């Protein structure tokens, strides 16, 4: 007898947190959407006639925004404030987890599983992947060039190459220092004790120098916040391209090196994923907060059914029952009436 079997193409009725949505839609929806948004922003920044530009590119803006937020629109309770806070907490814990190979418990396990299939591509396919990844370098170069030549900044043009290279080197040093201690200790025993002691100091110095360079660029040069944000996006795209090109084109040599295990590459990709995640999720929180404060009924429901409020009410009820059982309440009420009765007798 024939039996119906669900094909999984219906509407979703169970809420999925950010971890599951990230695993399902990052490479298929969000990465192309972010790339398209960067191209649209770069194209809009180079045009002076905004109405004409909007008339030409409005469809692409809708496509990019749809790729980004349609998974949340069809996710039940996807815009509820309490669910968003809990999902963000679980996603952050999933992103920063270390040493766990389970894809459901660790971002590193999921990313390594995704990269294992790409590392086994044929040589000609790896060459195609390398050429395709170069588009991010080209876009980063275009953004940086447009930022530098937006106005006549001779001092900025002179100091830009050393500042960018120093920032990249310091960022690479800090990313490599994050995981070197555990990896070297497990691999080579107690040999790199001095190396493990020096790395936190170098990482601290790297953060100080990077912050100093950032403050110097912000306060001593004529650079706006948008231009500084564009430069940061360009640096992140360069790091993303170098890390993914190393993993997807070289992959791993048998028994010698595995790029999916290198702390510098892993932490670089993790940093890019964290940046993209916060950039994607923050508009959701802004919309949920606006909806939460404008809807008095939802605010009241959330307040009345909050765990802290309900636990406080239950605790007060238990304490009240204990006082009634001990006779303390009746004694207090009797003394209260006696005191007010005396006041009424003495009043004129």
Automatic annotation (TrEMBL):
GO MF: 1,3-beta-D-glucan synthase activity
Listed A to Z, the keywords are: Membrane, Transmembrane, Transmembrane helix
Which GO annotations describe the biological process of this protein?
Answer: (1->3)-beta-D-glucan biosynthetic process
Name the source's superkingdom.
Eukaryota
Where the record annotates domain Glycosyl transferase, the positions are 2-114
Q: Give TM segment ranges.
A: 25-46, 58-81, 127-149, 155-177, 198-219, 231-253, 274-294
Alphabetical list of InterPro entries matching this protein: Glyco_trans_48_dom
**By what name is this protein known?**
Glycosyl transferase 48 domain-containing protein
Source taxonomy: Eukaryota, Sar, Alveolata, Colpodellida, Vitrellaceae
């Amino acid at each position: 007898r024939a039996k119906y079997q669900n094909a999984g193409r219906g509407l979703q009725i169970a809420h999925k947190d950010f971890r599951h949505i990230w695993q399902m839609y990052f490479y298929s929806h969000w990465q192309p959407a972010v790339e398209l948004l960067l191209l649209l922003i770069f194209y809009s920044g180079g045009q002076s006639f905004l109405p004409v530009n909007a008339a030409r590119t409005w469809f692409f803006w809708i496509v990019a925004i749809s790729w980004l937020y349609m998974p949340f629109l069809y996710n039940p309770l996807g815009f509820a404030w309490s669910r968003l806070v809990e999902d963000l907490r679980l996603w952050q814990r999933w992103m920063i987890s270390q040493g766990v190979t389970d894809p459901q418990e660790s971002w590193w396990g999921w990313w390594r599983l995704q990269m294992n299939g790409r590392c086994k591509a044929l040589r000609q396919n790896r060459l195609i992947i390398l050429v395709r990844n170069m588009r991010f370098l080209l876009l980063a170069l275009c953004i940086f060039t447009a930022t530098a030549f937006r106005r006549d900044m001779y001092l900025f043009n002179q100091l830009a190459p050393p500042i960018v290279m120093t920032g990249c080197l310091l960022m690479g040093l800090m990313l490599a220092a994050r995981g070197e201690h555990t990896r070297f200790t497990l691999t080579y025993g107690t040999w790199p004790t001095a190396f493990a002691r020096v790395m936190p100091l170098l990482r601290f110095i790297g953060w100080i120098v990077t912050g100093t360079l950032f403050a110097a660029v912000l306060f001593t040069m004529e650079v706006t916040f948008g231009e500084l944000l564009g430069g940061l996006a360009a640096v992140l795209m360069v790091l993303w391209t170098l890390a993914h090109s190393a993993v997807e084109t070289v992959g791993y040599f048998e028994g010698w090196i595995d790029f999916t295990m290198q702390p510098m590459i892993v932490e670089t990709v993790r940093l890019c994923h964290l940046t993209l995640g916060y950039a994607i999720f923050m508009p959701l929180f802004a919309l949920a907060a606006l909806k939460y404060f404008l809807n008095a009924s939802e605010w009241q429901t959330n307040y009345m059914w909050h765990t802290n409020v309900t636990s406080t009410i239950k605790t007060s009820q238990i304490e009240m029952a204990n006082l009634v059982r001990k006779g303390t309440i009746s004694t207090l009420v009797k003394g209260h009436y006696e005191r007010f009765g005396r006041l009424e007798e003495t009043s004129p």
